[in-house]
Amino acid sequence: MHTKMLTAAAAALTCAFATPAAAQQTGRAIVSIYHAAPGHQVELLKWLAAQDRVTTAAGVGRAQLYVHTDGDSWDYLMIAPVTTPEQDAAIEAAGKKLGIEAGVRASIDLRKHIASHTDTFVRGPMSAAEILAALGEK
Which of 106, 107, 115, 124 is deepest in the core (most CB within 10 A)? Predict the structure, then answer.
């Protein structure tokens, strides 16, 4: 239940900090919640920054990262678009070109810096009114 509430809060954050409705692109995203391994907060941030360089070089763009300031026990919350197989291939190629682990190998490297994490697929950003319209509700 706790994870569901955190996921709902993440979705709300996405809507709260999203661009104006006219500029929004509703799509699928992955909300990742990270608990850094003890003493690995800086290393985790460095790993995330390297992944941003890879995805940007691949033309996918970087994820949105939020830092915990008060409340629950997570350290970082990240919202990233769901990638296509073509984008995944571009990310792996960009990683090789930059000398940065990407793809499956990067997932193994990530685990050195986290105590735990969750990934949740979401749709958005959308307003409550847009969701109701999609459901055929007023």
Answer: 124
Determine the residue type at 22.
A
Closest CA to 40 of 138, 117, 115: 115
φ/ψ of 3, rounded to 5, equals -65, -40
Q: Residue 34's beta-bridge partner residues?
A: 76, 117
> Are 58 and 91 contacting, i.e. CB atoms less than 8 angstroms apart?
yes
- Tell how strand 76-81 and strand 27-36 pair up: antiparallel
What 3-state DSSP class applies to 72? coil
Residues 6+ apart with CB under 8 A from 12: none
Show the beta-strand stretches assigned E in the chain.
27-36, 64-67, 76-81, 114-124
